Amino acid sequence: MIKWGRGFVGRGIAAVLAGAMAAAAPAQACTNILVLAADGTPVYGRTLEYALETQSDVVVVPRNHEFIGTRPAKMAAPKWSSRYGFVGVMSFGQPFVSDGMNEKGLAGGALYFPGFAGYTPVDKADPSTALAPWEFLTWILSNFATVAEVKAALDKAVIVDLPAPMVNFTLPFHFPIHDATGASIVIEPIDGKFKVYDNPLGVLTNSPTFDWHLTNVRNYVRISPVGAAPLKIGSKSFEPFGQGSGLLGIPGDPTPPSRFIRALGYAASAKQVADGPQTVRLVEHIMNNFDIPIGFIDSAAKGGELEYTQWTSIADLRAKKYYIKGYRDQVLRTVDLTSFDLDAKGLQVAPFKLNLTPPPLQFNKS
C-alpha cells in the first residue's frame, strides 16, 4: 500500500506539484459541462489547461486505499481510506486527482479559482479533518456516492491555506460535482467557509464566483440557436447573413465569463440524443469548441508560458465509463470502471502516452 503525505516522498511530490502550479499561475481556462441523454443519463465533460506540461496519468484507485494528507513537519495529518473505488487524472506521480469519477457515478473536478478562493489557516483547523486544496476532490470521490451526501458532509471538513513545502504558493480551486441522478453543485471555498450552490445549468468555468456567472447570464437572454427574423425598416428588409444569426453576440474569447456563456449555450441548446454512448460523442463535440491551441494564449509576459488544452475528459455517470484524450492525440480512450477489481491492493496507473501518428483508414479490397 502506498502512503503519501507526511514522509519525504509525499512532501517532495507536493512541492513539485505546487512549484509547477506556481509557474503556471496565469492558467485559468478549465471548462466543465453536464449534458443529459434522452434516457436521463448524465454525461460530464471537462477540459484542463495549464501553461506547462502536467505529466498526467490516469489512475484507478481501489476501495480501502489509505490516504495521508500533506502537512508541514511535526503537524498531524488527516488520514482516510477510500470507501469507493474511482478513476481520475493525477499529475506528477501523486494519487490526488484533479478530475475523476467513482464507482457510484459521482464525478467532478478541481477548477482554477484565482483571486476568490479563501481557505482556513492551518493553525485554526482540526488536523483530522483539514485537507489541502489538491486533496479535497480525492476526499469527495473516495467517500461519497451522491451530491446530497457531499453536501451533508461538508461541515465535517475544511480546506486549509497550505502552500506545498518549499514553495510559497497555495492552489486556488473551486469544485463542480455531479452524480448519476443528474444532480450538480458547485463548492467554492470563500473566506475559510464553503459556499455551496445548486447548479441546474451543469456549467462551470473559473473566476469569478458562480453566483456572479449566474447574474451575467442576464446579459445574454436574447441569444438563441434559432435564427433571427429579418429586420424591417420602412419598406426595406434586412436579412441575416446565413445561419446562426440568433447567436450573434455570443462571446468567443477564452476568458472564464465568456466561456461560461458559450458553454451554457452549447449545453442548453444541444439536441438530446438517446443514451449515454451517443451523449458521450455529443459532449466530445461540444468540448472541442473549448480547445485552446498552443500560442493562442501567451502568458510569458506575466511569468507563465503558452497555455493550452492538455486534455479533455468525459464521463458517462451511469455506465461508469471515463474517457480522455490529449492535445497531441485526439483519439478518445476509455476506462470502464466496472471492469476493474476495486478490491485490489494497489493503484493501477495508465501513463498518458501519446500516439502522434494518426491511424490509417482501412480500405476494403474490390
Assess the beta-strand content as a share of residues. 25-35%
The CATH architecture term is 4-Layer Sandwich
Helix content: 10-25%
Backbone structural class: alpha+beta
- Mean pLDDT comes to 88
Quaternary arrangement of the chains shown?
single chain
CATH superfamily: Penicillin V Acylase, Chain A
Uncertain segments: 1-27
Largest sheet: 9 strands, antiparallel
> CATH class, please?
Alpha Beta
Question: H/E element string?
Answer: HEEEEEEEEEEHHEEEEHEEHHEEEEE
Radius of gyration: 21 Å
CATH topology: Penicillin V Acylase, Chain A
Q: N- to C-terminal separation? A: 56 Å
User: Given the structure, what is the number of helices?
Assistant: 6
Tell me the number of structural domains.
Answer: 1
Task: Tell me the total number of β-strands.
Answer: 21
How would you explain this protein's 3D organization?
The protein is α+β, with helices and mostly antiparallel strands and 366 residues long. It has a single domain (8-224, 256-351), classed as Penicillin V Acylase, Chain A. The protein is 18% helix and 27% strand. Strands 3, 6, 7, 8, 9, 12, 13, 14 and 21 form a 9-stranded antiparallel sheet that branches. A hairpin with a 6-residue loop joins strand 19 (321-326) and strand 20. The N and C termini lie far apart (56 Å). Keywords: Hydrolase, Signal. Belongs to the peptidase C59 family. It holds the Pfam family CBAH. Residues 1-29 form the signal peptide. This is Choloylglycine hydrolase family protein.
